[in-house]
Amino acid sequence: MRIVLDAMGSDENPAPDVEGAVLAAREFGMTIVLVGDQDQIKRELDNHDTAGLPLEIVHAGQKVTMEDKPGEVGRAKPESSMHVGMRLVKERQADAFVTVGNTGAALSIATLHTLKRIPGVSRPALSTILTLQGKAMILLDIGANADCRPEWLVQFGVMGSIYAERALSRKNPSVALLSIGEEAGKGSTLVKEAAELLQSCGVNFIGNVEPKEILAGTADVVVMDGFSGNVLIKSMEALGNTLFGLIRSEIKADWRSAIGGLLAKPALKRVYRAVDPFEVGGAPLLGVDGVVIIGHGRSNAYAVKNAIRQAQYAASGHIVEAIRDGLSSTITRDDSLPESSH
């Protein structure tokens, strides 16, 4: 297996990207193709023991920054590490592409310029993988499609179900819709219409869920429009950071709290690891004709390594082929909007 890594993706590139690739090559034994400025990559590799590791370098003369506008970067930087890396996947020279760079740019380049959509997919969906109480679940869409149609949510449910089965090892994964109430008939017109379609599309649809059910791990796949998903994920991240900040502050408030904090430190570390997105590393962009895993820009080497592991799961599970087959038997593509309007 060959996994392409955008070595110029992270906020501190290429140091954590290269170190994560070294860790992945050593632990997983697969070939990691580092794409980016070859001189910078070589300098970083010199800081590590790479003897015998299956690492390759492919030069890319441009890189996508976090400041680049997704709608412009596709044509403005055709030789970026994102373009070059995804073209390797498109040309079947690699099995998957991983980046922890500009999410919007990765979405635009994958959808409009390199891999394009899987036949039958109306809109690709950004996802995230949450691990709570030892159970991983996939949430989508979390930002690719602010405004959605009911048929798109159904496709998100099908694609998410396939990913949960093939990459997360869920048997007959449960699929739910994010809404303001658990009862059938609750929610917006979009949610109500999507719920009716999901009941007959072949997935294990269990109805509506509220955020508290998500946190309880009620469903393996939770479907939502991109606007709601983006607000949900950012709210959860902000709440988590605030809570851990408050705990650290209160532990330092007096000597009794400090002693209690020392005693509780191992437990607090386990709690933090249970909700740390770096434990997963990245999540798939579902619906494009190739495996694309996207992680956080602030990723460290450990997160990059785990993002590469997610790419391995997706590629070995033949996710793209399974989605193509799954959608062909459920719902027809909506061609009322041109591909460039995404």
Total of helices: 12
Indicate the CATH topology of the largest domain: Isopropylmalate Dehydrogenase
CATH H-level name of the largest domain... which superfamily?
Isopropylmalate Dehydrogenase
Secondary structure tally: strands: 11
**Oligomer designation:** single chain
Structural class, please?
alpha/beta
- The CATH architecture of the largest domain would be 3-Layer(aba) Sandwich
Itemize the secondary structure elements and their pairings.
Layout lengths: L1 E5 L8 H14 L2 E6 L1 H8 L9 E5 L10 H7 L4 H10 L5 E4 L3 H11 L11 E8 L2 E6 L9 H17 L7 E5 L10 H10 L5 E6 L1 H5 L5 E3 L2 H26 L3 H21 L7 E4 L4 E4 L6 H16 L2 H10 L14
Parallel strand pairs: 1-2, 1-4, 2-3, 4-11, 6-9, 7-8, 7-9
Antiparallel strand pairs: 5-6, 5-10, 10-11
Task: Note down, in words, how this protein is organized.
With 342 residues, the protein is an alpha/beta fold. The protein has two domains: 1-124 and 287-342, Isopropylmalate Dehydrogenase (3-Layer(aba) Sandwich); 129-277, Isopropylmalate Dehydrogenase, CATH 3.40.718. Helix content is 45%, strand content 16%. The protein contains twelve helices and eleven strands. The chain has helices spanning 15-28, 38-45, 70-76, 81-90, 103-113, 150-166, 189-198, 211-215, 226-251, 255-275, 301-316, 319-328; strands spanning 2-6, 31-36, 55-59, 96-99, 125-132, 135-140, 174-178, 204-209, 221-223, 283-286, 291-294. β5 (125-132) and β6 (135-140) form a beta hairpin. The radius of gyration is 20 Å and the shape is globular. Mean pLDDT is 90; it is low at 331-342.
Quick overview of this protein structure:
Helices cover 45% and strands 16% of the residues.
